[in-house]
Amino acid sequence: MMTDSSLYAARVPIFPRRVSGRFRTLKWAIMIVTLGIYYVTPWIRWDRGPALPDQAVLVDLANRRFYFFWIEIWSHEFYFVAGLLIMAGLGLFLFTSALGRVWCGYACPQTVWTDLFLVVERWIEGDRNARLRLHEAPWSARKLRLRASKWAAWLLISVATGGAWVFYFTDAPTLLRDLLTVSAHPAAYTTIAILTATTFVFGGFMREQVCIYMCPWPRIQGAMMEEDTLTVAYRDWRGEPRGKGLRRRQAEEAQAAITRAAGPQIGGRAPAIPMPGLSGARSGAARQDGPGDCIDCNACVNVCPMGIDIRDGQQLACITCALCIDACDEVMAKIGKPRGLIGYLALSDAPREAAGGRPRGAWAHVFRPRNVLYFSLWAAIGMALVFALFIRPEIEMTVAPVRNPTFVTLSDGTIRNTYDIRLRNKHGEPRAFRLSLTSGSVLAIALEGTEDLVTEIPANAQKLQRVYVSARPGGPAAARAETALRFWAEDLASGDRAHKDSVFNGRED
Ligand code: SF4
Ligand code: SF4
């Protein structure tokens, strides 16, 4: 049956009010640190010698290398990157299981850049009330000027964001000069353009829509959170019934003052989508008979960047940024009530708290078997990576026997095998390696392209050296199907040696 109702709902803009408090301060600090790391890192120099790049952090796609300060990862060592990615995943699992969506609320790029864009928006257009009025106002010269200024500032931030990203992939000062002289590779301009557009749109216009509708992470996190997870919650047994009863007058006065400061609540409130696995809404604990501490001032809603009401219970849209905690604590201080009507709380503690008991300490929630398991896996992989980093051989050599054919018989009856030996020189200067072999049988070694047994490898490069091993006619190695042998490579400068085992194939009579 056809109905007139539409499944589409246009976005209602959200104008979060400025708030101050301990969590806001923490968010400022994290924002400054994360943005500082992102923008500054490509400009840190690190001397690696004349043949190697002097950028501390560099993803050198052309040469398939990754430089991170003193660590250099070659493409064949990709397991380090894989290990770091697994660690990052486990770290997210650990934090989500212990503290809910702290990643989303404090450090996710979408949150950090949206926060930055909001700072600009407030700076140009004013706080919530002023922005609401501007939004409602018809287009005028003033509105056009404010909007144009805001969009221009957002665009500058977006270009800087896209620009900073490409600096990670090539020498930053050189690329900056090329970009300014319009002589950089087209890929650089394309990347900057794409990242500029996504930053501008995601941070300026889509904001909470990215978190609610585009990002799959909230759904995944819902499966990782449980009732022992500490997360932002409203103590409904303390807050309800709202603003009623004996303190109505006091509540109404406080509410009027705060509402005047906060401005009216217009429709920018997201629907309350319950967080899967966490029973959806409120604690369900018993409410008190008298009036609750919540004066229904909407301060917690007005500061929320997601436009939700935490009093509806835990919701998929809540990124646990804790700004509603700061807002409500401010209100509680004004009406002379204890802080913490909204606070970090585990739902498993709600009945105990509602009955007048003390909640378990934060550590009891953090040190749970699941979190210990996540941390143990995370630490084990981290230690394995550090160990692997320190035992990396100075000389890296691989040996690949050429098996088509396995051997050739020369005119004098000599049996010859061919091998491809790959040597890597990870140093900033050319190196010479002498190749040799040891075996239980008499075998001779020769190098293609050189009379002696020394092969030169340019700085920071690898070389494939073809090697021939021969057994004299009638000797034991020539007559045996397989003879074990060991190739040696000696660095003539340092005297360091490396070896790889292989086999020599003879004619089995
Ligand atoms: S800020 Fe606190 S008092 Fe005000 S509506 Fe929210 S929960 Fe109630
Ligand atoms: S309800 Fe809003 S302000 Fe409160 S933690 Fe969730 S996203 Fe942040």
TrEMBL record:
<keyword id="KW-0408">Iron</keyword>
<dbReference type="InterPro" id="IPR032879">
    <property type="entry name" value="FixG_C"/>
</dbReference>
<dbReference type="InterPro" id="IPR017896">
    <property type="entry name" value="4Fe4S_Fe-S-bd"/>
</dbReference>
<keyword id="KW-0479">Metal-binding</keyword>
<keyword id="KW-0411">Iron-sulfur</keyword>
<dbReference type="Pfam" id="PF12801">
    <property type="entry name" value="Fer4_5"/>
</dbReference>
<dbReference type="InterPro" id="IPR013783">
    <property type="entry name" value="Ig-like_fold"/>
</dbReference>
<protein>
    <submittedName>
        <fullName>Protein rdxA</fullName>
    </submittedName>
</protein>
<keyword id="KW-0812">Transmembrane</keyword>
<dbReference type="InterPro" id="IPR014116">
    <property type="entry name" value="Cyt_c_oxidase_cbb3_FixG"/>
</dbReference>
<dbReference type="Pfam" id="PF13746">
    <property type="entry name" value="Fer4_18"/>
</dbReference>
<keyword id="KW-0249">Electron transport</keyword>
<feature type="transmembrane region" description="Helical">
    <location>
        <begin position="26"/>
        <end position="44"/>
    </location>
</feature>
<feature type="transmembrane region" description="Helical">
    <location>
        <begin position="372"/>
        <end position="391"/>
    </location>
</feature>
<keyword id="KW-1133">Transmembrane helix</keyword>
<feature type="transmembrane region" description="Helical">
    <location>
        <begin position="78"/>
        <end position="95"/>
    </location>
</feature>
<keyword id="KW-0472">Membrane</keyword>
<keyword id="KW-0004">4Fe-4S</keyword>
<dbReference type="InterPro" id="IPR017900">
    <property type="entry name" value="4Fe4S_Fe_S_CS"/>
</dbReference>
<dbReference type="InterPro" id="IPR051684">
    <property type="entry name" value="Electron_Trans/Redox"/>
</dbReference>
<dbReference type="GO" id="GO:0046872">
    <property type="term" value="F:metal ion binding"/>
</dbReference>
<feature type="domain" description="4Fe-4S ferredoxin-type">
    <location>
        <begin position="284"/>
        <end position="313"/>
    </location>
</feature>
<dbReference type="Pfam" id="PF11614">
    <property type="entry name" value="FixG_C"/>
</dbReference>
<keyword id="KW-0813">Transport</keyword>
<feature type="transmembrane region" description="Helical">
    <location>
        <begin position="151"/>
        <end position="168"/>
    </location>
</feature>
<dbReference type="GO" id="GO:0051539">
    <property type="term" value="F:4 iron, 4 sulfur cluster binding"/>
</dbReference>
<feature type="transmembrane region" description="Helical">
    <location>
        <begin position="188"/>
        <end position="206"/>
    </location>
</feature>
<dbReference type="GO" id="GO:0005886">
    <property type="term" value="C:plasma membrane"/>
</dbReference>
